[in-house]
Amino acid sequence: MTKTKVAILGAGFISDIHVESYQRFIPEAEILAVYARNIGKARAFAEKHHIPAYFDDVDQLLAETDCEVIDICVPNYLHAINTIKAAKAGKHIIIEKPLAVTLEEADEMIATCKANNVKLMYAEELCFAPKYERARQVVKEGAVGEVYMLKQAEKHSGPHTDWFYDINLAGGGVLMDMGCHAMGWFRWMLGNAKVKDVYATMSTVLHGGRTKGEDNAIVIVEFENGVTCVAEDSWAKHGGMDDRCEIYGKGGVIYADLFMGSSALTYSREGYGYAMEKADTSAGWSFTIFEEVFNQGYPHELKHFIECVREDKTPLVTGEDGRAVLEMLYAAYASAGQGKKISLPFHPKVDRPIDLWLNAKQD
Amino acid sequence: MTKTKVAILGAGFISDIHVESYQRFIPEAEILAVYARNIGKARAFAEKHHIPAYFDDVDQLLAETDCEVIDICVPNYLHAINTIKAAKAGKHIIIEKPLAVTLEEADEMIATCKANNVKLMYAEELCFAPKYERARQVVKEGAVGEVYMLKQAEKHSGPHTDWFYDINLAGGGVLMDMGCHAMGWFRWMLGNAKVKDVYATMSTVLHGGRTKGEDNAIVIVEFENGVTCVAEDSWAKHGGMDDRCEIYGKGGVIYADLFMGSSALTYSREGYGYAMEKADTSAGWSFTIFEEVFNQGYPHELKHFIECVREDKTPLVTGEDGRAVLEMLYAAYASAGQGKKISLPFHPKVDRPIDLWLNAKQD
Amino acid sequence: MTKTKVAILGAGFISDIHVESYQRFIPEAEILAVYARNIGKARAFAEKHHIPAYFDDVDQLLAETDCEVIDICVPNYLHAINTIKAAKAGKHIIIEKPLAVTLEEADEMIATCKANNVKLMYAEELCFAPKYERARQVVKEGAVGEVYMLKQAEKHSGPHTDWFYDINLAGGGVLMDMGCHAMGWFRWMLGNAKVKDVYATMSTVLHGGRTKGEDNAIVIVEFENGVTCVAEDSWAKHGGMDDRCEIYGKGGVIYADLFMGSSALTYSREGYGYAMEKADTSAGWSFTIFEEVFNQGYPHELKHFIECVREDKTPLVTGEDGRAVLEMLYAAYASAGQGKKISLPFHPKVDRPIDLWLNAKQD
Amino acid sequence: MTKTKVAILGAGFISDIHVESYQRFIPEAEILAVYARNIGKARAFAEKHHIPAYFDDVDQLLAETDCEVIDICVPNYLHAINTIKAAKAGKHIIIEKPLAVTLEEADEMIATCKANNVKLMYAEELCFAPKYERARQVVKEGAVGEVYMLKQAEKHSGPHTDWFYDINLAGGGVLMDMGCHAMGWFRWMLGNAKVKDVYATMSTVLHGGRTKGEDNAIVIVEFENGVTCVAEDSWAKHGGMDDRCEIYGKGGVIYADLFMGSSALTYSREGYGYAMEKADTSAGWSFTIFEEVFNQGYPHELKHFIECVREDKTPLVTGEDGRAVLEMLYAAYASAGQGKKISLPFHPKVDRPIDLWLNAKQD
Lengths: 363, 363, 363, 363
Prior knowledge:
The structure is a homotetramer.
Chain A: E1 4-9, H1 13-25, E2 29-35, H2 39-49, E3 53-55, H3 58-64, E4 69-72, H4 79-88, E5 92-95, H5 103-115, E6 120-122, H6 130-140, E7 147-155, H7 167-170, H8 174-189, E8 195-203, E9 216-223, E10 228-234, E11 242-249, E12 252-257, E13 264-268, E14 284-288, H9 292-295, H10 298-311, H11 319-338, E15 342-343, H12 355-362
Parallel strand pairs in A: 1-2, 1-4, 2-3, 4-5, 5-6, 7-10
Antiparallel strand pairs in A: 7-11, 8-9, 8-15, 9-10, 11-12, 13-14
């Protein structure tokens, strides 16, 4: 079996997760190279994961390796430039969320990939998380009848890395970071139905000293098919990661909880090494998570893309889906600024999605 | 990469699980052949799973294929004979629980494997189930201090296949089928500490019309290190599979629940295809399980054995461990018969472990 | 001890709950009389609960009994008229939610009670439900730091009684029936802070054949103190009653679940008499609730009012609070109609709150 | 209404619980007097609870007050002497668990109460705990078919008060303190069926420096009707009180959890006042209990006894039941000493039940 050659851009938290997924679960891929802006960080990452090459220059990586797939795990503001470079170099691309900072970037990324005839997959792992996917299956089997409402929440106490808090680099706060998951999952559950309108409220409750971005948000999305969806996203919730969905149908309901709802329950007087993502402590009661990477669906997601590349298939989640999510985030920011529903399609020109909220607040 | 060649003996429920594990998670192995006593069943299994060869004769399978590993998933009474054949043919062996029906068989199996210089792994998947393994890790990190009590329970409403209920074929009832998991896991958690004595009580509460075997049992095991362990096993518990452990230490406690504690919670008026193993129905509230095979640890277990074969390492769980478990089951049956603790070592001569209970009951 | 004399208006579901509360937990009160529009229903209720007198005429009840307290449990459209009659007769009044159908009614009720110097308590039992009150206490102790978000959900599959579905009698759908609980509880948690604005979305998903009212609603309330609150209310959720709250603070979080989160978990092949309110079935898995009346806070609430009457104290929840809740419901209906936040104070003239939604929809 | 006059013996933890029960929920009783061995403690208790009289001499209390009911909440070794005094004084008696230290005491207590024609109620609150009672009801309705196994566990990290750890005063360790609950509840669930035999294992794992008594125990009770019961009791389990039961029937199963299973779930960075009984901390995740006294059934239990006194009825749980529980505890200690089942009836002569274990261990 020849292996599909992958290079990873980025050497942070999410890159670790991708590498674990490839190395444990996707034998048909091999990681040839890693890029980080800091060469020391690139080298350390390569050594830790036994990756043969490392770079601090994407052009050099593209020129000097024969990778077929570029897996983009860099900060938001570097998504477009690297996607475009990789596409022009003829590489297939899988890219972490959100697709881009602006819709213009998104459009250019999609167009460039098309022009260069390379695949572009938008890596929304909730579309592959096994508990959620199992829920989606039983919905398709009719378990809850016709769906009329979906909820999805993702909450923790805030990222560790600085760039998330810099709205120039991230384009916004928790909505850009985590709200995109809910938006992507709603569309996935509804067969990419069309969004009618979006309402949002948001605020900065915990990290005001560190960011101008929102760290708590509620978004209501109404789809043309009549389904109402509610997203809750927060960087202000203590006690560890929370990732839940609720599916309401005319014949039943499903509750799925990825973290607390799959963990062992531990009481430790002295504490121990690690309970779960963003848990402040492991002393006292804690929810001890296991096989986090697998249970969030990263291996399933990446395996799917490698299969698409090897068998020349279209990914289930594409750049267009990523763009649709970004449009919903634009609408959410604008809605929070204006205090009313924003109808889609919606394509104002802004440098950062969050300006649609911040600028309205200043008025 | 050359693949390690595996043949599977058995074409039932557990064989399906092993095949899913190999095919999805263990690319370094390939399944060459399957054996079933009924050739039609063997052929159907082979076709379903794209296995190139099928047999209703183990000798023929051993002679005609160049497999390196025999994975034994046949009923208990066929464990010894097939292990011995495979060992004499120079094959490495991984065998489902329980290791054998009698201690004499177990001794012969172990000796034959040694004599033929082949590996013998006792496939106790609870030693690999990721939630339980995560719990074991945090115990090792000191999360609960010194352990003083362990509990493990496995319960459902009874197997589907007939031979489980025939004590001539199975050697006993739920203890042989499921009690072995608890015994194996206790030893695993305690670093294969020595058992001091075993007490058990058991009865036939639900399936008396179908079996002379026990379908409900409580076993207390006291280890020489002072740790007390309690196993609960049942074929008489409705509402789906239950597999839980509790770990009590002087500095804390861990509760881990493999099935209900990892599932989505669904209410379905009409019901749907499948909720979890042995759930009677999926209508009303149900606990919707996902990635069952992975979360029970089968891929981790089989991957470990394939690695042992490829890298010539000793399995973490061996035939000797399987024998030690069987000795505990002997002691449990004798204890239930005599109403008192049975000290180990314990090696009475019987044809079937359950006779130690049944014969005492008749007195 | 002389007992405080109470008459109950209404002989339905909620009247049973009040009577159980008085008779088991409030010995300082005695129920003298019951009124129902149907004399047979009144008599049956009186006999069932050993109440000495029954009436189908409120004026007669007021004239012929020497009750001091009128406990109003009749349908919404009869709230104002009976409150005003009782107040004019010099009776203290405790009234079930919502306070009234219109703000004009509410104003008249409050004014009449004041003019006649009688107490008017708005019976919001969530302000007394012991689990929620315990949560409120620990919040006051600083358990979660400064609160920034509250959520409250109440959902089941729809009332049994017809008048709830008739918007002429109820004034609206699930918001009037259950949304008022969330609104009342938000204010209670926040010390009756002022509401800045309300946003809502609603739809009729399950009971469209039976009502023009909404049976599913999401309401976002923003308070002047910066706290964001989210209410979810539904008559379209199967599997029994759901009543939950979530309290988010800058130093922690509390999740409280009144029904599923306090029940025993039962699997019954054959089913049994009653699992919990609005559970469709007790076969299969069910959440078996206990001491429902107590755990929802009815005895605590009624005991408080009897104490107010006996000791001449002001109730903790008054007619003004009920009016404030109703104003929030008005704003929610208007918001759902207009697709934007509605700022408070808000007092449009309508016959039924739901017209603010229905009329906007027709435009 | 004349009130039934009650005097309480004891001024500790459980006396507080009884007083809260009487004062909030049993208006037909009034507490006239309290006794404690230390007069300062008696006075402080009386002042705290507005009890008119306090004593440090039981004889004086019996002579000087006209109470009709003596509620005995003193340490185990004072149960017999005070019961006998109260009975001879013609008082009805309700007594906390265990009934007595020895069977001889129990026999004398029962006989003296009979001779003096006073009622003797054994206060097993689990027979009245509303969640457990609800479970018992649905079992009687047939929810789980014929019961074949019961489990009951009560665990925390050890009492605060010293006498519990002194086997001369308590007669034993956690079995005397908490194991009696399980024994009482098993008999209650099974209509006081006859016990066939008892097996137990026990050890001192956490409090060896403070007590010779067992602080961890497993007891298996087999009833003549074929039902197997398992009790788990511990003073060595951290993280707060655990009180659970499981009911297994041929047609279903019920799980009921009194503490964690009825609480709110709180994450508090800073901690707060009180989470639940014996919780070491309220920082981090905690299970916030509410209405503890009510939900454990104390008001229901005491109300029942007051009703028995007022209406001259026989208590549902009598001195004979308390004696039967004590006999089971004797058998458990003897079994743990001898390593075998002990058949009932069983009445060895010992000063302290625990001697049946300790003396056998010394052999």
